[in-house]
Write a sequence for this structure.
């Protein structure tokens, strides 16, 4: 598996997790303090689009790493639980790194 598959999953896991925390903060302001309805709408739309991209990249990584359905489902759902994506990303990275093949050094090509 190429390193780029893991890298793009990791980037989207962090982006999705941060956007979910921002969305939760916006929701607190919207429903707790009755302010920020417009920003909450914009953040929710952005998070939704980014979460779809996260799903695509996580599914791609899971299919290449040959995960079980349960593990794949847990990774896909971690983008909907605040703070979970940070922990799941770290665990996934540790388990997938041995499967990653980096670029071949120039010395090995000769």
């Amino acid at each position: 598996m190429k390193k780029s598959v893991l890298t793009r999953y990791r980037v989207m896991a962090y982006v999705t997790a941060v956007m979910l925390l921002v969305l939760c903060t916006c929701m607190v302001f919207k429903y707790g303090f009755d302010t920020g309805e417009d920003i909450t709408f914009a953040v929710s739309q952005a998070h939704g689009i980014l979460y779809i991209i996260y799903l695509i990249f996580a599914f791609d990584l899971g299919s290449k790493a040959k995960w079980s359905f349960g593990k794949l489902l847990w990774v896909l759902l971690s983008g909907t639980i605040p703070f979970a994506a940070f922990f799941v990303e770290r665990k996934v990275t540790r388990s997938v790194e041995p499967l990653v093949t980096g670029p071949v050094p120039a010395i090995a090509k000769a």
Observations:
- Helices lie at 3-32, 37-65, 69-77, 84-96, 106-109.
- The mean pLDDT is 88.
- The chain has five helices and no strands.
